[in-house]
């Protein structure tokens, strides 16, 4: 008798760069570097395979965050799988500020939802994965693509995640300089103060608003002027040797702006030309500070998580 194939779903999810300078925990952009998640319902057991980035460090047991989000989706769908096989193939470096965990979580949630008959909406998936991450600015662009503005709005005992997508900037390139050392998001968030000067808060409110307008109107002169931060980058700079000099070198080489990618340590520069010169300037400047890095030229990605 012909064996029926085990139901399998494959999902591809983009990397993301969060904050985009002043938009701490609010702005994020999807980039064309991907994690691949494959989920199969099996007769028994829960198996996790990992290849690519993080293969040596990502757990294969119940602590694996992707397995945890898959289980939560099945539970919400009222389904109890006899067994699951999870295959993770990662191109996004782990703990480097490019949204590796967000991409993996979104991939797992979308794959599980597909196998459960798509009973959860995108909004429900967004809020489930945000609850794992604690902030929406990687998750939302990983799910929806493009540039996404997000806010967490408390409503009684529930927190609604409100997200709105802007088309990615046309003709813009993102040069990322990825140091060879990891920086856990948790550690980078612990470096932040509980209170900031009122003038710094106002600085970021104005710059975040203007960054959004610059993207909406493709106003690159404006973007170059306003993509600055006072809420998180100054407090994280001691964790990334040479960060300020790398920003200056990127701009001198032709970048419109250069900021910390998410919680770092990756630094990201936005440019429309001279991308090779920008990448070289970032790499050489990091090297002068004793930091070895890999540079990649990436493009903003209009599409988020996709079942393939
Ligand atoms: N692709 C992945 N698959 C499974 N677990 C992952 C993956 N990427 C990261 N993790 C796990 O997510 C947890 C949080 O990682 P952390 O947020 O510090 O790094 P990250 O999400 O990879 O980095 P970043 O958000 O800066 O890109 C870590 O325990 C890590 O093992
Ligand atoms: N907004 C988050 C992004 C983490 O990728 C932070 O900066 O901690």
From TrEMBL:
Residues 214-286 form the GHMP kinase C-terminal domain. PANTHER family: HOMOSERINE KINASE (PTHR20861:SF1), HOMOSERINE/4-DIPHOSPHOCYTIDYL-2-C-METHYL-D-ERYTHRITOL KINASE (PTHR20861). GO terms for molecular function: ATP binding; homoserine kinase activity. It is found in: Cytoplasm. It catalyses: L-homoserine + ATP = O-phospho-L-homoserine + ADP + H(+). Its main location: cytoplasm. Catalyzes the ATP-dependent phosphorylation of L-homoserine to L-homoserine phosphate. Belongs to the GHMP kinase family. Homoserine kinase subfamily. One of its GO terms (cellular component) is cytoplasm. It comes from the Bacteria. It comes from Heliobacterium modesticaldum (strain ATCC 51547 / Ice1). ATP binds at residues 93-103. Residues 64-146 form the GHMP kinase N-terminal domain. This is Homoserine kinase.
């Amino acid at each position: 008798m012909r064996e029926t194939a085990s139901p399998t779903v494959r999902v591809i999810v983009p990397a993301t760069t969060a904050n985009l300078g002043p938009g701490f925990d609010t702005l994020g952009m999807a980039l064309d570097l991907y994690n691949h998640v494959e989920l199969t319902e099996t007769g028994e057991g829960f198996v996790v395979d990992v290849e690519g980035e993080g293969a040596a460090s990502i757990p294969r047991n119940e602590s694996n965050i992707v397995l945890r989000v898959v289980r939560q989706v099945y539970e919400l769908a009222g389904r109890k799988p006899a067994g699951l096989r999870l295959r993770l193939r990662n191109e996004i470096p782990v703990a480097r500020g490019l949204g590796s965990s967000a991409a993996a979580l979104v991939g797992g949630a979308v794959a599980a939802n597909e196998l459960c008959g798509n009973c959860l909406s995108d909004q429900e998936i967004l809020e489930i994965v945000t609850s794992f991450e604690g902030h929406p600015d990687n998750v939302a662009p990983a799910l929806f693509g493009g540039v996404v503005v997000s806010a967490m709005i408390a409503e009684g005992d529930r927190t609604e995640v409100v997200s709105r997508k802007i088309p990615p900037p046309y003709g813009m390139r993102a040069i990322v300089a990825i140091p060879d050392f990891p920086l856990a998001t948790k550690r980078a968030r612990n470096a932040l103060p509980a209170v900031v000067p009122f003038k710094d808060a106002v600085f970021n409110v104005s710059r975040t608003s203007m960054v959004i307008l610059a993207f909406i109107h493709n106003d690159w002169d404006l973007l170059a002027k306003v993509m600055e931060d006072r809420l998180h980058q100054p407090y994280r700079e001691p964790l990334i040797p040479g960060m300020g000099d790398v920003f200056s070198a990127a701009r001198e080489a032709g970048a419109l702006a250069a900021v910390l990618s998410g919680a770092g340590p990756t630094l990201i520069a936005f440019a429309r030309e001279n991308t090779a010169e920008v990448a070289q300037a970032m790499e050489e400047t990091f090297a002068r500070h004793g930091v070895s890095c890999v540079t990649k030229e990436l493009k903003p990605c209009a599409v988020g998580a996709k079942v393939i």
